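Milestone M4 deliverable, item 7.
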Amino acid sequence: MSTANLHTKSYSNNDRLFFLLNPNEDIAENDPVRVVDAIVEGLDLKEFKKLYKEKGRCPYHPKMMLKIILYAYMNNIYSCRKIEKVVQRDIHYIWLAAQERPDFVTINRFRNRVKNEINNIFTQVVLVLADKGFITLDVEYIDGTKIESKANKYTFVWRKTVEKNRVKLQEKIRVLLGQIDDVIAQDKAIESDKVDFTPETLTSLITELQDSLSKEPQPTDKEQKKQHREKKKHIKELEKHRDKLGEYNDRLEQIGERNSMSKTDPDATFMRMKEDAMNNGQTKPGYNLQISAENQFITDFALFPNPTDTLTLIPFFNSFLDRYGHLPQTAVADSGYGSEENYRFMDEAGMAAYVKYNRFHLEQRPRYKPNPFHHDNFYYNAAEDYYVCPMGQHMTRLGTSHSKTASGYCSENARYRAQNCKGCPLRCLCYKAKGDQRTIEVNHRLNEYKRKARELLTSEEGLKYRGRRCIEPEAVFGQMKFNMAYRRFRHFGKDKVTMDFAFFAIAFNIKKMCSKIAKQVKNGGNTPQNGLFLTVCRILPHEYRIFWNNPQKSVA
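Output delivered:
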């Protein structure tokens, strides 16, 4: 076909000057970028003022920076360099930034600058959701997941190994002091038989040995020179031991109550991840992320160093209380949170605890048969405080034992013992311990909490909450890891990791709100051009609706 009659619009390679007249015309009225713009305009950013100096070059407006970062997180963009690129190329980001172009250094500096204040912004967004009816903050579904840290997986430090090496080093120091032919060293070696060395005591000892060595006359014969060299060598070895001892002490201080830590990220703890490709139980540095969800919105979050969920519930509820000023009326969680300490906290707080215990699912199986030889299935006479074994023998109470958890909670266990099990035909089925008197320990308070939890979980309300638990926090984790590709933290340190997830949680909630608004519009039969616009106008204060029609941005 001939191209002689082909007609096209004029195009000149030499004239590539473009002028964007009105980007508002190129963005649809139902675009989520408008929701981000309107919500951020309605936030209170008073705390951000103290982060800026009155003198110097004018910074970018914090609202503008917050908008582009949140919108980037909504679109699975977490790198500052990638955010810089889209701000220059994508019309949605250009519209949010009012054609300003912050570079990646400025974006990263802003994130680190607001690492404490961003937590308050998250709270404000959740309160907006609660005020507009998306959530109630009365029913909270709690669950946790482990997310890998940015630290290298081969930078582990184990507490037991450090403690063992520290004990060996103390012994090496004692042996070395015994080898030094000096009165000061000999005295210190004798004094340290019962007391451990510290870097400070070793520093003072090294100073005394160096002073003593400098005051000695210059060696003349070969034997004296040899002894002089030996003393210098021992002092150098002692300095190395001192530095190593200080390193061990620092490691133990950084580890704290944990079992491990990472050298590159001291706040991260080594724990087993579900995303174990080799399925060999390999540990990786990470954080235990705890969230509470309602209607698939993230209402609260916290990061913990311990890999188990049992000890995280009470601190997490305290975080919820500090954030919103009240505790939820109903708590729903799996069996990982079912401990006496947690049940007691929720009971004293007046919460309805739909929290499973470890054997709940086993008891609900149709073919479940209770073990008649387990002490939980023994008959208990509460009036006279004794148990009856399967053979009808009374087990009288001996006393009470106490045990402490890792958090310091003290539980009471009542001890009961049978009178005589010798010659019992059921002896081999009843217990395997030595002796002719079986002893059992029973936690009456925990059994009462389990009974209450069983009644709640098997009720009509309990069945409803149990059915929704698997689609509340689990759905959030699924969307977070697979849909939004947020599977690993990108910062070192707990404070920066918390900051990064706060940005993500805000973006997640806004994205979820846009999805629900679009669904409401679809079910309500509104047109896509006006439906989202009208819905957002209803949920936002009147003074912020003008930004939809006149999106002028003010940057300092």
